[in-house]
Amino acid sequence: MKAYTRISIALMSIVALFCLSGCSKSEKDIANDISNADSYFTLYDLQLTDYEITKRQTNNSEKTDFVWIEISGENDDFSYDAAYTATYIKYNDGWHLEDYTLEKSDYSALNEPSLDSVKDNLSKEYADLEVVQDNGRPGSNKKSYVLSGSIKDNYIIRTYEIRTNYVFSPKTGWHKESEEDSISAVQYDIVGEWLFEDSDHIYYIHISDATDDKITFKYSFLNKAINPDDGYWQLRQSDYETYTIGLLNDIDYLKENTCYFDVGWKKTYNTVSFADEDYIWFCNHISTVYGTADTGFVVNGHFLESISKNNTDSNYPPELRKAEDKYTVDYSTIPQELFDSSIISYFDYLNRSYEDLESQISKTGVKQMYSLGKARFIDNQVYVYLWIVPKPESTPSAISLEATGYSFAELKEYFENELKWNIYEDSTYKFVVMIPNTDLQVTVQEDLFSAKVKIKKV
């Protein structure tokens, strides 16, 4: 019995020794060998989750074992799938991994970038963030979010659509690949009262409502002294009306930061240019045209600053409530020694259209210049011309007097010392006067032979 037991133990030992030296590696052992050998598993702390041998060629006589195997692993962030070919060689102490080749591999993120982290990142620049789109599919390693957010810049609130694109890599995890935004809406945060006041002016605006393209407001503007800088008017007032926001089309910076309102002051409609005083302007960032102020409404070059966010006109200046326009137009007060009656009658032409005047004027060789004949200016006969664009609805821009027979200095002396009128825009070659009790401005310019005189309505 004891001999039999010793023989059994010996046989088992021989069988075990044969298996250790002769049996090829198991599927699990091969998966462990390769995952331990591949530094990718170690570098990213991947745990082996699955494996499968897809093909195998074992040759005991040649002592080789060729294995085709697919292995999967993962950590907290991503899963990893790889296909290998491996070569095992049989030595005296058993089979050993001699070499392996990574044939292909892929990884897939197991989570997505946190929406909270996306918002936190964008909130450094944008406010009121809301998700518009959530794009991406599991395992794609790419993710994009589209959010809406706003930026307040002084009195303009711009709403943007922001697309943030993320990409995953094992080394960096989820990281932002690109970001782009586009303006989806513009809101003017200007409801309230606006005021400019000094010794010669009181300008007041109350805005009751503002949308992205229209603003409702009333205004009252008082010039206590009549002068060219303020356009020769004394009082302009309007009750609440809704006006369309006008934008400039030519200069990106101005288009982005200024808008204008056509309130019916402009007499002729050419291309709108910045700071045209026939419009009310709103400037969000301008500091080079009107002094040191950089934000506010602009009327006649004066900045109105915000004085309240009220939806009522509680700060309406009392002086404006009782203001009256005392400036009247009376051509009969024009000195007879300055113009004869024919020139004075031509002033009515400045109110009429080209279609109405065409039969009464004669074209000259100069574009937009029409002859009205001769008339008396002070003591001389002069040529009288009407300046008008030959289009049916056009109104004249001016009446000019040519060959006056007077020098620039003589006319300046006459207006200043004989008539005792105020001289404006006084320079070496030009000066301007306003004919009292009229809406007529006279501009005198030096010429080679005699000064030129131009008269226009203001």
Fill in the keyword field for this structure.
458 residues; alpha+beta; eight-stranded antiparallel β-sheet; 9 helices; disordered N terminus
Can you walk through the features of this model?
The protein is of the alpha+beta class. It is built from nine helices and 23 strands. It has helices at residues 2-22, 27-37, 39-43, 115-122, 252-257, 318-321, 341-346, 354-357, 408-418, and strands spanning 47-59, 64-74, 78-91, 94-109, 127-135, 142-153, 156-169, 173-188, 192-197, 201-210, 214-223, 235-244, 258-261, 280-283, 296-299, 302-308, 362-363, 369-377, 380-387, 398-402, 430-434, 440-445, 452-457. It has an eight-stranded antiparallel β-sheet with strand order 12-11-10-9-16-15-14-13. A hairpin with a 6-residue loop joins strand 22 and strand 23. The longest helix is centred in the first third of the chain and has 21 residues, at 2-22. The chain is elongated. The model is unreliable at 1-5, 9-21 and 288-293 (pLDDT under 50).
